[in-house]
Amino acid sequence: MPIARAAKRAVVRLGAVTLAGALLAACGGSSDDSSSDSAGGKVTITVDLFGSFGYKEAGLYAEYEKLHPGVTIKQTDTEDEADYWKSLQTRLAGGAGLADVQGIEVGRIASVTQQQADRFEDLKKYGADSLKDQFAPAKWAAATGKGGEVLGLGTDVGPEAMCYRTDLFQQAGLPTDREELAKKWSTWDGYLDLGKQYKAKAPAKSAWLDSVGSLYSIMIGQEKERYYDASGKLIWEQNPALRSAWDHAVQAADAGLSAKLDQWSPQWNQAFSAGSFATIPCPAWMLGYIKGQAGEAGKGKWDVAKLPGGAGNWGGSYLAVPKAAKHKKEAYELIKWLTAPEQQTKLFQKQGNFPSATGAIEKVADAKDPFFSDAPIGKIFGDAAKEAPVQVLGVHDQNIAQQITNALSEVERKGTAPEKAWSNAKKGVENTIG
Questions:
Q1: Measured between alpha carbons, how far is 20 from 17 in angstroms, rounded to an integer?
Q2: Inter-axis angle of helices 397-409 and 240-254, to 10 degrees?
Q3: Measured on CA atoms in the order 391, 230, 430, 427, is the torsion positive or negative?
Q4: Residue 210: closest CA among 282, 311, 144, 134
Q5: pLDDT 10s per residue in the chain (434 long)?
Q6: What is the pTM (predicted TM-score) of this model?
Q7: CA 23 from chain center: how many Å?
Q8: Helix H or strand E segment including 274
Q9: DSSP letter at 261?
Q10: What is the CA angle 10-287-56, rounded to 5?
Q11: Does an H or E element contain 25, and which?
């Protein structure tokens, strides 16, 4: 889910549950490893996530409970990952109110491994070492602590593509064939040019894309180094690739190509079915989100094409077990099962979350999605996953990204001058990370 994951991770995020609910469901802070909540060996495993990782929707919790009589899984969600992370930091500091399983967005995993390893279980004590070859090397390495601790198991990754509304394209006189579009928008300049053509003949109240923040996020996901270099040095201000992503987002705002929607807002959610935008930068996890928001009426109206500018990754997540969890061993067994190739395969087939388990990647290569006009999503996202750069992850990646997208929102919605907004982003980063 994992940013997205995230940015907003944005990770795929369906149906928010309040933070208060999350705290109540995950009460405690006890280090008790007892395996039962009551007599009879029954155990309730609490899972706290941001948005929706798709486990409940794909029926995986129900399947696990059937395979493990006496186990009940209770999940809580916070739709906005930034709110989720802030609350998690408060609970980790106090050692209370934590669930047995906590989701970690990929943009936060460096913070866990470099600064908070003492607050999460080293999963090696439960045998996680044996799972190393199950995951893509980069996915596994990112959750490994300085001392070799295994601090989380990988869920999905976020290979990128472009999702678009074929019906809206037709109304604006644009081609709808995914291969033809991939050629026309092989570059980001080509994508913006096509957007200007769309705007000239677009249906009423329909923009080219949802927000310039999503354009920035997808473009920066194509880069190996974004906010930090490989040595751990902050480089975001001087990074030409980041500035290019910023400049293209500003161009989209200036050209009036955006629907000016805050991602993850109620208005944004409604826009998927209302036709308020024709394209949306689309990491694999976004497929399940679009299905959930557009509903059955959207089936066949959407399609997926190769991303402009080359392959990239936006988002992805991990499942971790806090030291203050009540049921550590049971939590590990659950996340081991959820992240296994078999379950990652099912999750992709039902929700679109692209697997990080190597065995699952092979199994989904030929997958097509009828909701998205039978798009060959296995090949599109599989090729992107193979070609995407292994990204350098820094401690404050997500915080910096949030400040930049906030600044772009100022340009988009308030008409703030780009250089003023950039200065505001710089100040925001300084205030956030010191």
A1: 8
A2: 30
A3: negative
A4: 282
A5: 444 444 344 433 333 222 233 333 333 333 344 444 444 579 999 999 998 799 999 999 999 999 999 999 999 999 889 999 999 999 999 999 999 999 999 999 999 999 999 999 999 999 999 999 999 898 999 999 999 999 999 999 999 999 999 999 999 999 999 999 999 999 999 999 999 999 999 999 999 999 999 999 999 999 999 999 999 999 999 999 999 999 999 999 999 999 999 888 999 999 999 999 999 999 999 999 999 999 999 999 999 999 999 999 998 999 999 999 999 999 999 999 999 999 999 999 999 899 999 899 889 999 999 999 999 999 999 999 999 999 999 999 999 999 999 999 999 999 999 999 999 999 999 999 87
A6: 0.84
A7: 23
A8: helix 266-274
A9: P
A10: 80
A11: helix 19-25
Residue recorded with tokens 């009460």 = 27
**Structure-block tokens of residue 172:** 């604006």
Count other Cβ atoms within 10 Å, centred on residue 38: 8
